[in-house]
Every structure is written in structure tokens, then in C-alpha cells.
Design a protein that fits this description.
Arc Repressor Mutant, subunit A; 9 helices
Length: 148
């Protein structure tokens, strides 16, 4: 991809990379595109940096001020640019990623709900349960049993 980007463009490399991705087996109602690729159809390196940091640090709490410092912009400017480039807020982006990580851990691990909540950045399992029920209309036990 690096060579394609160097010889052609970032847009061309991005398009080819998306075509080459092999997705895991999906259920009929699952999204066509990975949540990790959604909202990344832009070419703003600072926003990509923030998105990468959030993906790698879902278990950590971070403020807008902290994220803005990572890419050397003001907090208000970061908020504005992020929404303009991705179409959603930083909080909405983080929530989408946390939901996906929780679903994956529930279906593919034997971790207890309390540990999964911690790995997804929540202090209690109740916070995760509320999130999943609100966004997926499902409790963790229903998601865990989905593959059974």
C-alpha cells in the first residue's frame, strides 16, 4: 500500500486497501463495512491520528483537551474538524468502537462482563449493559448466546 500511495495517491491506496480487505463472517443484519473503517473516508492525518489513538486506547478515559494536545490543535478546533471530516462527534465515534469491541469480546471470549466493561473503558458492567441495551436493544447475555 505504501508503494501505491507513493506512486499514485492516498485516495488510490485507500480504495485498493478497502477492496482487498477480507471481512470476518457476518450475520445478515451486520454492517457491510467494519466499524474500524467507518468514518475514515477522509484524508486528514490529524483526525486519523486521533481515531487510531482512540481505537488503541478504548479502555482509557481521555478528554477533548488531551486529544487536542496529541495533534497540536485547540479543543474547539479538534471538535469541529473531527465532526466535519467524519460526520460524527468524537464521543459518538468512541461509543461505536466500544460497542463493537464489547460485542466481539462477548461472542469470542470467556471473559466475565465486568472485565469486558473494563476493557471497553467503563468502570462498571452496569454502564456497559445500559449502552448495549440502548444501542443494540440487547443485553450482554443475549449477545453472548447469539453464536451458540
Amino acid at each position: 500500500m505504501y508503494i501505491i500511495e507513493e506512486r499514485h495517491s492516498k485516495e488510490t491506496a485507500s480504495t485498493i486497501a478497502k477492496e482487498m480487505v477480507v471481512y470476518k463472517r457476518r450475520h445478515g443484519n451486520d454492517e457491510q463495512e467494519s466499524v474500524y473503517l467507518q468514518n475514515r473516508n477522509h484524508h486528514d492525518e490529524k483526525i486519523h491520528g486521533i481515531q487510531d489513538w482512540i481505537i488503541s486506547n478504548l479502555d482509557k478515559t481521555s478528554t477533548i483537551d488531551f486529544l487536542a494536545e496529541l495533534v497540536h490543535v485547540g479543543p474547539r478546533n479538534l471538535t469541529r474538524i473531527f465532526k466535519k471530516q467524519t460526520g460524527i462527534t468524537i464521543a459518538e465515534y468512541r461509543t461505536k468502537l466500544r460497542i463493537e469491541k464489547a460485542k466481539s469480546l462477548l461472542m469470542n471470549s470467556d471473559y466475565k462482563i465486568e472485565h469486558i466493561a473494563h476493557l471497553c473503558g467503563y468502570k462498571t458492567s452496569k454502564q456497559l449493559r445500559i449502552l448495549l441495551e440502548t444501542h443494540l436493544d440487547a443485553l450482554p447475555s443475549a449477545i453472548k448466546n447469539k453464536l451458540s
